[in-house]
Write a structure and sequence with these properties.
The complex is a heterodimer.
Chain A: H1 39-42, H2 53-67, H3 77-97, H4 100-110, H5 127-142, H6 146-176, H7 184-208
Chain B: E1 4-9, E2 13-20, E3 23-26, E4 37-38, E5 41-43, E6 49-51, H1 53-57, E7 66-67, H2 83-88, E8 100-102, E9 105-107, H3 109-128, E10 134-139, H4 145-157, E11 161-167, H5 168-180, E12 184-191, E13 196-204, E14 207-216, H6 221-233, H7 238-241, H8 244-260, E15 266-271, E16 274-279, H9 280-292, H10 295-305, E17 314-318, H11 325-335, H12 348-360, E18 368-370, E19 377-381, E20 385-390, E21 398-404, E22 413-420, E23 430-438, E24 449-455, E25 461-467, E26 472-474, E27 477-480, H13 486-495, H14 497-501, H15 504-529, H16 538-554, H17 558-595
Parallel strand pairs in B: 1-10, 10-11, 12-17, 14-18
Antiparallel strand pairs in B: 1-2, 2-3, 2-4, 5-6, 5-7, 8-9, 12-13, 13-14, 15-16, 19-20, 19-22, 21-24, 22-23, 23-27, 24-25, 25-26
The chains are: A mainly alpha, B alpha+beta.
């Protein structure tokens, strides 16, 4: 999937042809990332939404071994800088690609589409439950009644189940596209619903005091 | 270049280790053979500084000028120092980095830590027989950017190039992983003297990948001591209770009793005439809430890693405080299995630091650490909101780019306030630094400055800026909120050049003489004023030891001077105890009279 121009690049250190690889296959020097390199290229993967997670992890570990700053402690300043940049890119690629939701969002970005920056619309399928939850959260904030809390928790469990089902469906959607990709609109619709549920679950957590935020600022 | 050393710069004790053919090895004190250097720094009259066990022994006599847990203050401002710590030491006023006042001068925590690092460097050089200039230093995983910077500054001030800061639990996992060749997910529970960390890691084919970390940088065994000390202090009248020397002695007695209670069912805290019997059950009730505070971060780390307790293959106990039976039970309650304790919890972090030093020097290429940033990082945006740029538990190194513009016409600079924490409001997070990026004056909203935040493998942030309109790199003027500026470090380094170039032996002779003068002076005073408290023949024995010390002091052998100081110390100890006991006994008697 690499652009043809990439394959003619030379290694800056030994002048061997090195293609689009992160490190030179002859002298193992880290190569500067080209401006057009995407996160799939960083881990030498074809640009597609389906991927094998075990294979992804193997690639991540292999790439980390090749470029991590620990390996370049005694190298020249230029090589240390390249190592830092390459290592950051490898980490970002793995973090984004291993999660189907982050991968989907990145896919949209690659294709010039974005999820709205504002708060996502209520997905019609769950509008009734959302409305009920928000009312109960309002009440719960006013008075911490145990019965209310139980009701909210039951609703929360429902949303959590739905979220994990949506994630599974996303995986299935990627796989069924069979190397191609689903339409951007379809992807956008599903990712919006997931984003909505995540925000909602975060609000529930805050209101029920399940969040453990703030342990770091005792002083 | 010499060997790279690995340093565990602990709250209570510090150690140094290297990786050798057979594995990592802790390097001992060349004089005493001790492996642990108490993290104590005593500032003496005349500008002398002593470090370690001899400094710790001075804490009772010179509580304000002997800094015992300087790590608690690293990277903080005065407003972050607890009320108890404010009573314990003297602090200079003013904003920015904390400044301790010792022997009439101000020192910053990195300067105090640098004394500890210099001593460890000396130990390593003596053991290795060569100069050492590069080090790996461990820090609590939950240390924020300021605390990490402060640790790196301390290394620089000690004449060490700090090649890497490694998180303590991660270092410990290296020592365990090397031994066991394990695969799977492990949790490292690290409760030290002053800090608590929990890290969840996946080990696979030599890669140690941190999945999540959490903790509390102000929770540790010191807090247990404090609670126990309060028990015996409650036996004394108010006026005596708040005396710094009495409190320091109470803490030392409490620490001893805490250790005893890990094996024994009961013990007695003795502070002069005041005695307080404590059972293990009472101790446990006393510190229960502190120990339970470790559960929250553990659950948070598991949740962030997307795991349940049953997914954890083993739990590793690190830090001296995990010797407390209640702490072990807490670990078992959280993770559903007893912790692994087969490597000495006091040494395991240093051994791991030694291994990481070996990895950096290329001696071990089979192992690789992938660590994370412990706290989210971001900037202050309109309305005092904290806008996250890097989420906590993101693998490092990592980088993020953000584009900024101006709100007012003809602005010549953009100000950026960098914050770290998990809360929504900027005022609830920790301020790290402010950056000023100069720009060309243009109408509002026109300039486009791209700022890159790069977090390196030490978890330390650096910032670069580029003007997208001109393509020029912009210099970024960094003002750390609670750190030392580059100029301050340069000045401190210049001040310490004399110190560094001076012959080590000469310095040790001078230090030993100051120590000798201190004890000689105190002994003469006591003999003159409190002669009636002397036991039979005691005065004669003390005078003999005084004469021996005076003779040693006139010579050039610092070890002989130290020995004579120690002998005199032993001879005068019961006498000194009687003097202190008497003042406390009188105070106790007065209180009883009042109570009648």
């Amino acid at each position: 999937m690499q652009a043809a121009a990439d394959t003619r690049r030379e290694c800056w250190k030994c002048r061997a042809e090195r293609g689009a690889a992160l490190v030179c296959s002859r002298c193992a020097a880290i190569q500067p990332l080209s401006a057009d390199a995407d996160l799939f290229t960083v881990l030498d993967l074809p640009r597609q939404l389906t991927l094998d997670l075990a294979d992804l992890e193997r690639r991540y570990h292999a790439a980390s071994r090749a470029v991590h700053p620990d390996r370049f402690q005694t190298a020249s300043r230029r090589e240390r800088e390249l190592s830092l940049a390459a290592s950051a890119a490898v980490n970002r690629a793995y973090r984004t690609l291993r999660d189907p939701v982050a991968r989907g969002r990145y896919w949209l970005e690659l294709h010039g589409a974005r999820l709205g920056d504002g708060s996502p619309q209520v997905p019609p399928a769950i509008a009734a439950e959302v409305f009920e939850t928000q009312e109960k959260l309002e009440e719960l904030r006013a008075a911490a009644r145990p019965d209310l809390r139980r009701e909210v928790e039951a609703l929360r469990d429902g949303f959590t189940g739905r979220l994990s089902a949506l994630r599974d469906e996303l995986g299935a959607l990627y796989a069924s596209a069979n190397g191609g990709a689903p339409s951007l609109d379809e992807l956008k619709r599903r990712l919006s619903e997931i984003a909505y549920l995540r925000t909602l679950l975060g609000d529930i957590e805050d209101a029920t005091g399940e969040g453990l935020r703030g342990t770091d600022h005792r002083h | 270049m010499g060997r790279i050393i690995g340093i565990d710069l602990g709250t209570t004790n510090s150690l140094v280790a290297v990786l050798e053919e057979g594995g990592p090895r802790v390097l001992p004190d060349p004089e005493t053979g001790a492996a642990l250097l108490p993290s104590a720094v005593a500032f003496l009259p005349g500008g002398e500084v002593i470090v370690g066990a001899r400094a710790k022994a001075l804490a009772g006599e010179r509580p304000l000028d002997t800094i015992l847990s300087v790590k608690r203050f690293m990277g903080l401002g005065l407003e972050h120092v607890s009320a108890e710590d404010r009573r314990r030491y003297r602090f200079a006023g003013g904003g920015g980095v904390v400044r301790l006042v010792v022997e009439g001068r101000e020192v910053t925590p990195p300067e105090v830590s640098a004394h500890i690092l210099r001593e460890l460097k000396r130990w390593a050089e003596a053991a290795l027989g060569e100069a050492v200039g590069q080090a790996v230093i461990t820090v609590p995983a939950y240390f924020n950017d300021s605390q990490r910077q402060a640790t790196r500054d301390a290394g620089r001030l000690a004449g060490l190039e700090v090649l890497r800061l490694v998180n303590e639990p991660t270092a410990a996992s290296l020592a365990y992983g090397l031994d066991k060749q394990d695969e799977g997910v492990i949790a490292v529970y690290d409760l030290g003297g002053g800090t608590f960390d929990i890290s969840v890691l996946r080990l696979r084919a030599g890669v140690f990948e941190v999945l999540a970390t959490s903790g509390d940088t102000h929770l540790g065994g010191d807090d247990f001591d404090e609670r126990l000390a309060d028990l015996v202090l409650a036996e004394l009248p108010e006026a005596e209770r708040s005396r710094a020397d009495v409190r320091a002695r109470a803490r030392a007695a409490a620490e001893h009793v805490k250790r005893t209670l890990s094996d024994a069912e009961r013990a007695e805290i003795v502070l002069g005439p005041a005695r307080r019997a404590v059972t293990r059950a009472e101790f446990e009730a006393l510190v229960k809430d502190l120990v339970e505070r470790t559960a929250g971060p553990c659950r948070q780390a598991l949740k962030d890693a997307g795991l349940r307790p049953e997914d954890i293959r083993c739990v590793v106990a690190v830090g001296g405080s995990t010797r407390v039976p209640l702490v072990r039970r807490q670990m078992e309650a959280i993770f559903g299995r007893p912790p692994l304790t087969d490597i000495d919890p006091d040494r395991v972090v240093a051994l791991g630091a030694g291994i990481q030093a070996g990895i950096l020097s290329g001696r071990r290429r089979d192992m690789l650490l992938l660590d994370v940033v412990p706290l989210s990082l971001g900037i202050e945006t309109m309305g005092g909101v904290f806008t996250r740029l890097v989420d906590r538990n993101t693998t490092i190194p990592t980088s993020v780019k953000e584009t900024f513009t101006t709100a007012v016409d003809n602005q010549t600079a953009v100000d950026i306030h960098v914050l770290q924490g998990e809360r929504e409001l900027a005022s609830d997070t920790r301020s790290l630094a402010r950056f000023k990026i100069p720009i060309c004056p243009l109408p509002a909203g026109v300039p486009r400055v791209e700022v890159t935040f790069l977090i390196d493998a030490n978890g330390i942030l650096s910032v670069t800026a580029a003007d997208l309109r001109t393509g020029h790199e912009r210099s970024v003027e960094v003002k750390p909120s609670y750190g030392l500026s580059e100029a301050e470090i340069e000045r401190m380094l210049e001040d310490s050049i004399d110190y560094a170039e001076e012959d080590v032996r000469q310095r040790q002779v001078r230090e030993a003489r100051v120590e000798a003068d201190m004890i000689l002076h105190a002994t003469r005073e006591s003999l003159a004023r409190e002669a009636r408290l002397l036991a039979d023949g005691e005065g004669e024995r003390i005078r003999t030891a005084v004469a021996a010390l005076e003779q040693a002091r006139a010579g050039e052998d610092y070890l002989a001077i130290r020995d004579a100081v120690e002998t005199l110390g032993k001879e005068t100890e019961p006498f000194a105890r009687r003097i202190m006991d008497r003042s406390l006994t009188e105070a106790l008697a007065n209180r009883r009279l009042e109570e009648l």
